[in-house]
């Protein structure tokens, strides 16, 4: 080394990562691009991988959400179908709309007995529709009645073909199957009866006749308990006296106690106000009438095995009927001055026959 040479100072640098020196003996300068670039590339690749993963995750979630949405939509559509089915069942359970139609009566009558067809019905090979009980009779008249087929569709029509009661204007609101109409009309409690008062032409159901008797004729009205004696004054036979009205508790059946002159005596009779009279299948009441003085044990008794029914179309006079209680003058004008009492006891019919009874009066200001 010459004298002019100056010592060379080298900067201390950090040793290489592997701790080795270069061949020149100098410590290599840190190559920033070589050491930083790979890390940056790795970081970028990681970010890209994470981005790809995030995007894939997002796509997966979107796909999952889409699947769930489709599943939810399918579920909703399925639920809608179930709701629609349930609604259909509810509609079937509801009452169907009703219509009024006009139909030939012959279509609803038997070809053998010519009465209204009553289910079950049958059709022969000749096309004739008959009642169940008419198959044997029809076989004698039709040569093709060897075999019969059930008419179930017609049975459904017969059960549902209904018409209003013919006494609708008098208060009945029943809708009756056509084949049952005759039976209903014969037993309808709203069938009209006449007022028996002279010169009165009122025609009304028994329940409304009670209002007429009370309001227009001032006849007394008494509630009657079946099986118990009802105490009444012996009615005078004067025309102005009229009748005494009894109304049964529960079934609201209407009875009239009617007096009339029978010579010097007074005839008293009992009748039930009901259309059709005794020809109907209505329940038959039993009754007992007797007259007594409060201070005497002697009685005049009339036992009625069946209380007569009448629509009063021919009036009502006790003496004109075959069953009445004759009260002699000695009881009507007793020396003691006591007034005789009329006792009425009506027994309610037993069994289901009592179901056909007079309905309660509807509030109405006008009699039909």
UniProtKB/TrEMBL annotation:
Which Pfam family is one of those matched by this entry? Sina_ZnF
Disordered: region residues: 1-82
Give the SIAH-type domain ranges.
Answer: 160-218
Metal-binding found in the keyword field: yes
From the UniProt record, which GO molecular function terms apply? Answer: zinc ion binding
The protein's matches in InterPro entries, at most eight in alphabetical order, are given as: SINL_plant (IPR044286), Znf_RING/FYVE/PHD (IPR013083), Znf_SIAH (IPR013010)
Q: Which UniProt keywords apply?
A: Metal-binding, Zinc, Zinc-finger
Functional note: E3 ubiquitin-protein ligase that mediates ubiquitination and subsequent proteasomal degradation of target proteins. E3 ubiquitin ligases accept ubiquitin from an E2 ubiquitin-conjugating enzyme in the form of a thioester and then directly transfers the ubiquitin to targeted substrates. It probably triggers the ubiquitin-mediated degradation of different substrates.
Q: What is this protein called?
A: SIAH-type domain-containing protein
Q: Which organism is it from?
A: Urochloa decumbens
User: Lineage, please?
Assistant: Eukaryota, Viridiplantae, Streptophyta, Embryophyta, Tracheophyta
């Amino acid at each position: 080394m010459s004298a002019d040479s100056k010592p060379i100072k080298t900067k201390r640098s950090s040793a290489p990562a592997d701790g080795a020196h270069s061949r020149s003996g100098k410590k290599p300068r840190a190559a920033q691009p070589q050491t930083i670039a790979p890390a940056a590339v790795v970081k970028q690749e990681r970010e890209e991988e994470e981005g790809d993963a995030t995007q894939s995750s997002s796509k997966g979630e979107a796909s999952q959400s889409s699947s769930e949405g489709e599943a939810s939509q399918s579920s909703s559509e399925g639920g809608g179908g179930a709701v629609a089915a349930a609604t259909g069942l509810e509609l079937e359970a509801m009452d169907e709309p009703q219509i009024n139609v006009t139909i030939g009566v012959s279509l609803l009558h038997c070809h053998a007995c010519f009465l209204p067809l009553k289910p079950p019905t049958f059709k022969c090979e000749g096309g004739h529709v008959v009642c169940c009980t008419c198959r044997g009779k029809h076989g004698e008249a039709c040569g093709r009645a060897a075999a019969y087929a059930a008419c179930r569709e017609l049975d459904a029509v017969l059960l549902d073909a209904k018409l209003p009661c013919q006494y609708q204007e008098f208060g009945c609101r029943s809708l009756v199957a056509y084949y049952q109409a005759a039976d209903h009309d014969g037993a309808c409690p709203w069938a009209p009866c006449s007022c028996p008062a002279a010169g009165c032409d009122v025609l009304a159901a028994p329940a409304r006749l009670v209002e007429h008797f009370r309001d227009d004729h001032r006849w007394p009205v008494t509630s009657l308990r079946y099986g118990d004696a009802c105490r009444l004054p012996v009615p005078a036979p004067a025309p102005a006296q009229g009748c005494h009205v009894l109304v049964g508790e529960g079934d609201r059946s209407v009875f009239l106690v009617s007096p009339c002159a029978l010579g010097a005596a007074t005839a008293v009779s009992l009748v039930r106000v009901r259309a059709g009279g005794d020809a109907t299948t209505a329940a038959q009441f039993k009754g007992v009438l007797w007259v007594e003085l409060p201070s005497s044990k002697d009685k005049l008794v009339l036992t009625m095995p069946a209380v007569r029914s009448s629509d009063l179309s021919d009036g009502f006079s006790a003496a004109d009927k075959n069953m009445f209680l004759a009260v002699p003058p000695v009881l009507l004008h007793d020396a003691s001055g006591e007034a005789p009492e009329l006792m009425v006891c009506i027994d309610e019919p037993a069994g289901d026959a009592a179901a056909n009874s007079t309905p309660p009066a509807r509030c109405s200001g006008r009699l039909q």
